[in-house]
Design brief:
This protein is α/β, with parallel strands linked by helices and 362 residues long. 36% of the residues lie in helices and 16% in strands. The strands form 3 sheets. It has a 7-stranded mixed β-sheet with strand order 1-9-8-7-4-2-3, sandwiched between helices. The structure holds 4'-deoxy-4'-aminopyridoxal-5'-phosphate. The site of 4'-deoxy-4'-aminopyridoxal-5'-phosphate has 11 residues, from helix 3.
Length: 362
Amino acid sequence: MRTHPFLGAGPSQLPDPVLTRIQSSIEEYESSGRSILEIGHREPLFQNMFDEAESGLLQLLKRDPGDHRVLFFPGGGRYQFHLIPLNYLRAGTSATYILTDYWSRQAAQVAGYFGQIKTKSFHPHDQDPGGPEIGLEGQLDGQSYVHITSNGTVSGFQFKDFPECSTIPLIADMSSDLLTRLLPESSPNVMYAGTQKNLGSTGLSVVIAQRDQLLLAQKTVPPIWNYATLCDAHLPLATPPIFNIYITLEMIRWTIAEGGVEEMERRSIVKSSLIYDEINSNPDLFINSIPVHYRSRQNVVWRMRDPAEEQRFILKAKEQGITGIKGHISGGGLRVSLYNGVSITDASVIARFMARYAQDRS
Ligand code: PMP
């Protein structure tokens, strides 16, 4: 089992008990005499797995299973960059994309292939730490939806509150913070996420929404991509990535057993504080320019005062067995990702390393 933390931005490390269960299911799945890799999607074994993954996820998100659905798709978060506008961007309307970092820009760029979009850049300052004052008032007429990236995996910027959009659906890319934070009762209206950060492994995405919201999908969308058709189908329309769905189910089971989203949020606060405390205590060495209220609890992103020293820091960390901390290719710097599979102990390993590094240098 794992001896050193992997703190990459996705795929994330998986908890040891999850890996153990997966290993055993590769040997034999649920006393079926077959491996999980040999189970078909028309079998009750799969139907049970699928139903449990859906109900477990809704339980964790505190969404009513009576009127909410979870859709599973092959392909990650970027896949939904396409399906959201395909399903919801109506002719004669536009959609507003709130731009905060790399992934929100990518989502907006893709939506532009499907119709008219408006963008709104959001740059908060330390002086206004309240809810997101994005200034959407009076600008939502003729809009199909508002899109937000709840956590900027690249920039380390996270919305702690969601913007108010009146009657316009708020759609959130929660690829890097789904299941790490408690949510308001009925917002965002549509959530989606690639599963490789807090929900399992690569190659799968989930869409979660109220049934009525899913049924608003445009009728012209072919069935296999159509949220409304899939909402009522109750089973995938093509052979799904069964193994990936199974891994997600094991992550859901583990999250429930560990105490649910409340506990994941508590751990996220503890883990991220350990790293931010080191950054704050060593201002001569480390810089993080994100206003405190918006600092991500999933991706702590920072620079060294002397950027030339970043490579040395990464190499020294590697000598200690700490990997995955290089910033995104678009911006460089350093990034520690603290997804649910990363424990408080893992986070304290890198925090102690940062403290020692600072001490040795002074
Ligand atoms: N949205 C966010 C917030 C992400 O962090 C990522 C990937 N890191 C994506 C979308 C793209 O997802 P994928 O790589 O699964 O297509």
